[in-house]
Input
Amino acid sequence: MLFSRARGLPVLTPGDADRVGEVRGLTVDGAPWRVTHVLISRGRLRKGAMVAWNALRAAGPDMLVVRPARGPDEMPPHRELVGSRVLTECGEERGTVLDAAFDPVTARIEAVLTTRGELPPDRLLGLGDHALVVRSGAAHHRE
Output
């Protein structure tokens, strides 16, 4: 599933299928490169919510279904992957993130699509507020 296709999907409760809101964004953990949380928009006048990916009962191309709330979880900082600058570990500019593909069952990032091409997850080093940092793929530090 692409991040761009997940954004805007309705988020429903199981059984009665009440609409909780819609997907506004996805939070990514840089260590195992997985989607960890879903940012849910609940309308203009209601505060949004963040739901842990493992609290989802189902994720498909048409909707996400969330389990009933168990209580507040510790929420990680949300960093937007799509739109991030891409820098190598040497600080070289490598474009901008256009989209990312992930497995909706495991939540693992399968590829990051940038203005300069596709990056496999083994090239990803870290995601911060400033940029996505990637391995350069070439030896730039020869002495």
